[in-house]
Amino acid sequence: MQVNYEALIDEAKNKMLKWQEINEQNMWELYSNKDGYIVYTKKNPENGIAMNRTQTEIARTPDQILDLVGDVNKRPLYDEKIETAHVIEQIDANTRIVYVRIKPPIPFMNSRDLVMVQKVYKQNDGIYIVCSKSIIHQKTPPIHKVERAEMHLSGWIIIPQPNQMTKIIAIQCFDPRGDVPQSVTNQYAKLQSDMMKAAVKYIALNYK
């Protein structure tokens, strides 16, 4: 049976746009506001898994930001937590199946990997969206001694601002799967804000 990746990722993108709003309905709780990065947390209303929302601004163009965060092959350039990341299958110009393997946060623990459909959306208002969601892919079965995690939702929202700045919002709902202590689960949750900081630092140094 042919999987409708388009419908899957469109649904994830619509949820991300709905949940990214800071309002009473979405019930985000402020976790930290430091050094220009604002981090919120909440429970996913569908499954109770922790979600993170990280926001900042940078004096670079949306195209420069998209060039980095929209290309999974470039992720190891800025994210030291990644063992490997690459495209498995290109569906169309904006949609692809990607593979990402994450280093374990503590010794004697298996790496986590993800197989996701990822799509780049370019809206008429100049906003770019990069959205990813876990899928089952027949050609990429689980690997021995690597735990197949689940990304319920992950993405970047790149919003041009009138002051030649660009606002970046990253949202993630990640289930590491397996037998993971709560303290380690919390470390995984922190990876998202660390990833944004690393991406912004890389963009500032390498995109002029």
UniProtKB/TrEMBL annotation:
Coiled-coil boundaries: none
A molecular function GO annotation: lipid binding
Domain named START: residues: 24-208
InterPro entries: START_lipid-bd_dom (IPR002913), START_lipid_transfer (IPR051213)
PROSITE patterns tied to this protein: START (PS50848)
PANTHER family the UniProt entry points to: PHOSPHATIDYLCHOLINE TRANSFER PROTEIN, START DOMAIN-CONTAINING PROTEIN
Name by which UniProt lists this protein: START domain-containing protein
